[in-house]
Amino acid sequence: MARFRVLLLIVILLAVGLLSLYFQDPWLWRRYTNTFLQLAGSEPRLLRPNELVSGDGSFQIPVASEDQRTITPLALRAAEEFAARFESHALIVIHQGRIQAEWYADGWDASSLTQSQSMHKSLLALLVGAAIEDGVIGSVNDPIARYIPQWEDDPRGDITLYELMIMSSGLAQYKFTLNPFTDDFRWLYSGDSQPAVLRTPLADWEPGIKFDYNNINAELLGTVLENATGKRYSELLEDYLWKPLGGDDARVWVDSEFGNAFTSCCLMATARDWARIGLLMLNRGRINDHRFVTAGWVDKMVTPSPVSKWYGLQTWLAYAEEVNPRSDNQAAAGAYARSEPFLARDVYYFSGRGAQRVYVVPSRDLVVVRLGPALGAQPLKPGWDNAFLVNSLIRGMDELKKQKRAIARDSLPKPQVNREADVPTDVLEGETSPRPADPAESAELPDKVPANERGYTVEPEAKAEETTEEVREALPAYPPEDLTETDPVTPPAAP
Questions:
Q1: By the 8 A CB rule, do 318 and 350 touch?
Q2: Beta strands at 90-95 and 366-371: parallel, antiparallel or unpaired
Q3: Are 130 and 241 in contact (CB under 8 A)?
Q4: Mind giving me the DSSP string for 380-433?
Q5: Against a cut of 0.70, is the pTM above it?
Q6: How far apart are CA 247 and CA 272, in angstroms?
Q7: What is the mean pLDDT of the chain?
C-alpha cells in the first residue's frame, strides 16, 4: 500500500509539473505536437493563431477575352500541367495587365488562402520603403538600435537596416531542431518569440561582407516597423499595403493571441492578392490608382546588392546564363534548379519554401504566380525547374505573335494579274516551258530576322535538308513533345 501511495504521488507530481510546463507556454507545446504531424504529411490550411489583414477586394485584375489572348493555348496548357505535376494549389498568368490563365487544384479556388512562406520577406522591403517615404524611418542606413532599444548599448545595434535587407547582418544562424528548450526552436514556435529573436548572437564575421540568408533578419525588420510606426504589424500591413492594393482579406501568423507577428514567413493570402502585388512590382510601385512606393525604391529592391548578385532588398534576382548557387543548397530542396537559362535577362521573383513564387518579367510585361504545398519535411516534389513557367510562357507569346503576323499577311488582298500581258503564251496554252529568268529575281535575298526582344533569339527557319545539331538547338524547345499530337494549336483570329 505504501508503494502504491509513493507511485501515485510521483504520478501526480509529474502531471502537475507537465501541466505547469504546458501553461507556461501553451502555444510552444501545441506547435511542438503539430511539428510531428506536419513531418508525417499533415498540412493545415491556416496557421493559428493569426490576425486579420482586412481588404475590400476593390481592385479586380481584368481577364483577357478571346481576342485579347497574347499567349498560345498550348503554352498556357503546358504551364498548368507543370503546376499540376508539382501538386500546386494555384497558378495565375498575367500578360499586358490581363489574366491570361487562372488555374486551381481541386479543393482550391480564388478565395482560398495559401501559405506564403518566405515570399513574406519581400513585402517587408515594400513596407520599409513606404515607412521611409512616410518619414517614420529615417534611412536604410539607420542602425537598428534606433528602433530596437534593447540593443542600444550592444554591438548588434550597429547593424543597419540595409544590412538586414541584403542578408548580410553578421548575426548567427538558428538551426532547425526538435528540442523545445532551445532558442533554435523557440524563435519560431514559442508563444513569446521575441526574447529568443533578441538573444540571437553575432557570428564570427562582420556585417556587410558576405551574403548569409537568415530568417532572423526579417523578424528584426518586422520589429523595427512596429516600433517605428507604433502599430501592430497586421495593422500597418493593412494600412500601408492591403487597403491601397484593393486586396482580399488575408491573415498573418502570430506567436500568440495579440502577440508578435512572424514576419520571415507565414502570411496567408489569396493567389489573386499575390498577383496584385506582382503587378505593383511590375508597375514600379503603382497599382489601383495608388502609388505605394516610388519607382526608385522598387528599382533598389531589384538591384543586386554588394554581397550577392542574386539578391536585392529581400528579393531574388535571376540571370540568363548563370545559375543561382542556392540551387545546390540542400535546404532549398531543388527550388532554384533549372534545365535551361531564363529567356529574359530581367526576371526577378518573390520566393518561399516549397517553390512559392511571384515571377516578374518587366521586359515581357509578365507576372506569374505559383502557390503550392509549403509545410512538412519535403513540400516540393523532386524535378522542379525554376525557369520552366517563365520560359514556356515567353515562347508562347512569341509563337502567337508569329501566327498573327502570318494570318495578317495571308489576309492582305492579292494583286491583280493581267494573265495575257504577264504570262507567256505557251504557259497559258498548257505548255510547261519556263519563261526567261529575271536577273532581279535571281539575286540572293537577305535572311529575314524577326525583331525579338533582348535575351531571346530565334534563328531563321531551317531548310528541310538542314538537320544538324546546331539547327535543332536553335529551334525553340516548344511545344512539349507529349502535347504536339493531342493538342494541336488552333490558329487565332486575325487581329
A1: no
A2: antiparallel
A3: yes
A4: S-TT--TTHHHHHHHHHHHHHHHHHHHHHHHHSPPPP--HHHHS-HHHHTT--P
A5: yes
A6: 8
A7: 86
Confidence at 324, pLDDT banded by 50, 70, 90:
confident
3-state DSSP assignment of residue 358: strand
- Could you give the domains of the chain? 64-116+318-409+476-495 (no CATH), 119-270 (3.40.710.10)
Percent of the chain with pLDDT over 90: 69
Largest Cα–Cα distance in the chain?
A: 129
For 334-354, the pLDDT digits (tens) are 899 999 999 999 999 999 999
C-alpha atoms less than 13 angstroms from C-alpha of 462 in its C-beta half-sphere = 14
Q: Do the Cβ atoms of 273 and 356 come closer than 8 Å?
A: no
Confidence at 120, pLDDT banded by 50, 70, 90 = very high
Q: Which residues pair with 254 in a beta bridge?
A: 261
> What is the DSSP code (8-state) at residue 171?
B
| Contact between 313 and 300 (Cβ < 8 Å) | yes
Nearest to 225 by CA among 310, 142, 287: 142
Q: What is the mean pLDDT of residues 449-478?
A: 39
